[in-house]
Amino acid sequence: MDNELEFRPVRWSDLSMVYQLTNDPAATGDFEWYGWHDPHSWRRQWEENGLLGDDAGTLMVVRGDEPLGFVQWHKRRMGRVSFCWNIGIALLPQARGQGHGTRAQRLLVRYLFSHTQANRIEAGTEINNLAEQRALEKAGFTREGIIRGAGFQGGRWHDGVVYSVLRSEVDLS
Question: What CATH number does residue 126 fall under?
Fold first, then answer.
């Protein structure tokens, strides 16, 4: 059981890691560094709802008692009466490259399809982030296409790649 990944709600003691994975260029990696931001935003959100709301959420990715990073999701309107989940992941540098991202994203898909009525889950990444593209494909996502000029980072615009998985493509039994 210690080698299996699990989710748990974010604890107060996890907030420093969450902050590190979103606000420390050494921890974010080349594709997720977007500059410094409010150092208290995570704490305020945690105090408001524990980072678990109706339209968005964050869970810690853990192996046994060891936190490896976190997963997030937020609602994206797809029409007047429909929505999908858009997901993301951030792992500590020492947890990357070991298949944890694939397993965590697969678990998140099962979690969201099991506990919400969404029919679609999507994820995007920077076009040069080949490791994340492989992780999403291994997790069962289908590459849908390129989003030109979608993300601003490091002083320039970058193309992105969008992936999705549908409820009918996942065995929830």
Answer: 3.40.630.30
Sign of CA pseudo-dihedral 115, 99, 36, 50? positive
- Domain span at residue 21? 5-169
Residue (of 47, 24, 33) closest to 126 by Cα position? 33
How far is the C-alpha of 173 from the C-alpha of 164, rounded, in Å? 20
- How many domains in the chain? 1
- What is the helix (H) or strand (E) element at residue 136, kind and residue range? helix 130-138
pLDDT tens, per residue, the chain with 173 residues: 446 999 999 999 999 999 999 998 888 887 887 888 888 999 999 999 999 999 999 999 999 999 999 999 999 999 999 999 999 999 999 999 999 999 999 999 999 999 999 999 999 999 999 999 999 999 999 999 999 999 998 899 999 999 999 999 999 98
Name the residue among 36, 62, 60 with its Cα closest to residue 50.
60
Could you tell me the pTM of the whole model? 0.93
Nearest-10 Cα torsion for 57, 43, 62, 71: 30
